C-alpha cells in the first residue's frame, strides 16, 4: 500500500534529518521518500501529520508481554514498533521451541515486532547453559538472565566464552546476588528513615566490575540493563573509553524518579533495581543525554493484587510501553535535551545496541514509523491504558506527548481516534 | 429566672452566699468535689469559707461525656483527683454554672466509679435553666436567663479573684 | 505531602508513626495519658469512652506483650476487643491484607490495632480506608517492620517526662541494634520533635543505619564515650538472628562492648534513668544488676504504656 504521511515534522535522528512541514512516503512496506514524492507515487492512504512529529517507530529494549495481545496493542499505542522481551516469562524462554512460538504469535498478532531474548541458562538458574545457537536460530536476538544474577562466577565466565564463540551478545542486569537479596529499596536516607532493607550501590558496582573483567578476558559483547547508580555509570564510561564491547540502558522511570518518590511507602515506587538518590538520577540523566545509555521502558505489568501490598511485598515494576514516549519527552524538557537527541535514545540507539538496521527512516528502510503530537496532553488513568498493567507511579498525572498513528512495515497498526 | 443584670454580680460575694447556704449542713461531714475548672475554683473558695480541713476533690468529666461521638476527646483533660474514700460519704458536687445538666450527669457517673456515696448534692453559683436532664441544684445563689448565643463564664485572675464574664458564642 | 495520619481538620485520625506529627499532638497524647494514669490507679479502672466500639487487634507478627497491653487499654475504655493472630502463611494462602481489612470492616470494626512484619503496612490500610470513604474507622500502628512503633515511642517519652520533666535540657542515648529497630526510629523522631538537644546512637557499624545524622542523631561506636553525662539511656534488645547474619560474632563480644554494666552506667549522670522496651536479654545487652537496680524504670514503662495506649485510642476514635 502506498501511504503518504503529510505535513509533519520528520525527525530521523540517525540520519540527521529534522524537517518541518514535510511528508514521508511509504511504498511496499518501506520508506520511499521524504519531502518529495518518488516518481509515479500515488498515495492510496493519507495520514495527516500536521502539528505532529514523524519519527522512526520506537524500539523498547525491555518489555514484558504477560498477556501478549494486550501488551502488543499497548506497544503500538505507545508508538513502539519493536519490543525486546526479557526471558523471564513463565516458563522461562530457554528452549528454541518456546522462542519460535513467541515469534510466530507476535507475527500472527501483527502489531509490534517481537524480539525475544533467550534465557542464558536453563530455567534462568545460572548453572547450565541453554542451547544458545538453537535459540538464536529460533529468533532470539541476544541472551539474558533478565534480573536474576549468575552467582557462580565461573559459570558466567564459561557462558561469556561460549557466547563469544558465536558472536552472541549477553544482556545482564548488574546486581550482586548477596548484597541485593534482602533489600527492597536503595540503601540511602529514605530507607534508613522508613526502615526498609537497603540495596547498596555496591551491589551494582561490584557486579559491573566483575562483568567488565570477564569481558576483558573473553571479548564477549555485553549489554548492561537498567543501570541505577552514578558509580555504576562511571564504571561503564571508563570501560567504553577502554574500547570494551559494553553498552547500557536506563529505565525511563529512573531518569525521573528517586528514592524520595517512595513517600509514604508507595508500592508503585518499588522498582528493580531500586530508585536511588538524586545524585544517581542526575548521573543517569547525563549518561542518557550524552548517548552513553539508551532509554527503555522496562515495561512490567503487575496486577493490583500484587501491587496493593506493603512495600516490601509488592512486586516491583511499572507499566511502561504507553508512557515511554511522554516520559522521555518530559525528561528531555527538564534536562534541556533537544527533541532529535531524545528520540535517538529510543530509536537509533536501541537499534545500535541490537545490531539492527532499523530505527531510522532512510529510503529503503522498513517503514516502522511513529506519528505523535508532542503538545497533546492526556491523563494517565487505568482506562486510558491498553496494557493490562495499570501499575504506575504516574496514575492520575497528565502526560504530554500522544501517539496519533503507528506503522509497522508500512502497515497502519494503530491510529488514535479524535 | 431573672434576666441578666448589668453589671454582672460579684462572684466572690456569691461564693460567700453559697457558703452560707451550706454551713447549716456541715454536720453531715460533706466532702467537696469541684468540676474543672470553674467548679474547682468555687470548691476551693468554699473550703476556705467553711473552714474545712480536708482537701477538695477535683473532677474532669472528659472521659464520661455523652458527646464523644460528635466532638471527640476534649483536647485539654486533667487528671481527676479524689483524695478521700467516696464510700459512704456525703458528697457536695460543686460547679459554677448549671445548664443542660449533662456535665453533672457525667460527674455523678464518674464519682460512682470511685465508690458508693451516701448522698450527692449539687452546689452552684448560677443556674441558667435550659435543662435537658432531670437534674436540680441543692444549693444555688443565682437563677438567670441568658439570650441565644450568650454564655456565662467564670474566670480567675492572677490574684486568684473570681469574676463573671459574658461571652458570645 | 498530605499526612495520612491527620484528618481534614488536622486532627489525629490514625497513629501510624511519630514522624511528621506536630509537637502539639505529641503533648496532647502525653497530657491525656496523665489523666488515664489516674484512672488506672482507681478501684474501677474503666471509663465509658469507647463503650459499644469494637477494637480489633490485628497481629500479623506474634507479640503477646504488646497485644496484651493494647487489650487492657481498650477494655479500660469499655471497648469490645477482638484478637486476631494472623499467621503469615495462612494469610498468604489467599486473602490479601486489604481483603482481610474489608471483611473486618463488614463486621463493624471501629479501630484496628495492627502489627505487621512489613514496614508501611498500616499506611496501606489507612489509605485503603480513606479511599473507601471510611473516616470513621481508625488505625493504630502496633509496630510495622523496622519502620515505627509509635505507641512505644510515646510511652518512652511519657517515661522521660515523668522522671526528667524538661526535654529541652537532656542528653539521651539509644544503644544497640538501631538498624532493625522500629522502637529506635520512633524514639528518635519523638525526641527530636519534643526538643531534646542531644540524641545519641551507640552501636557497632553493622547495627546502625546509614544517614542517622540526617535524622539529627550523633553516632558513637564507643559506648564509654557515648554514655558520658547522659540523662537517659534507652537499651534495645539484641535479637539472636543478628548473630547468624554476619552482623555480630557473638553475644559475649557484644556484651563486652555494648552491654550496659554498672561500670558503664556510672559514666552517665548519677541520676540517669535506664529504659528498655522489653523483653530484656539479661547478660546480652544489659547486666542484671542494672536491670534490677534503682536507676532502671523498665517496669514503670509498662504501666505508662497502658495509659498512653488508652490516650491514643481515645484521641483517634473521637476524631
Q: What descriptors fit this protein?
A:
heterotrimer; A: alpha/beta; 8-stranded parallel sheet; 18 strands; globular; C: 319 residues; alpha/beta; 13 helices
Structure notes:
The complex is a heterotrimer of chains A (418), B (169) and C (319). Chain A has 418 residues and is α/β, with parallel strands linked by helices. Chain A is 31% helix and 24% strand. The model of chain A has no long low-confidence stretch (mean pLDDT 96). Chain B is an alpha/beta fold and 169 residues long. Chain B has helices at 11-22, 38-50, 68-71, 102-112, and strands at residues 2-3, 30-35, 57-59, 90-98, 119-127, 139-145, 150-156, 162-168. The two termini of chain B are 21 Å apart. Chain B has a single domain, classed as Rossmann fold. In chain C, 50% of the residues are buried. Chain C contains 13 helices and nine strands. In chain C, helix 1 (23-40) packs across helix 13, helix 2 (64-76) crosses helix 13 and helix 6 packs across helix 7 (182-193). With 319 residues, chain C is an alpha/beta fold. Chain C has a five-stranded parallel beta sheet with strand order 7-6-5-8-9. A four-stranded parallel beta sheet of chain C has the order 2-1-3-4, with helices on both faces. Chain A binds chain C through residues 187-189, 191-198, 263-265, 267, 305, 308-313, and chain C through 1, 4, 19, 96-98, 116, 118-121, 123-124, 127-128, 144-148, 182, 185, 209-212, 214-215.
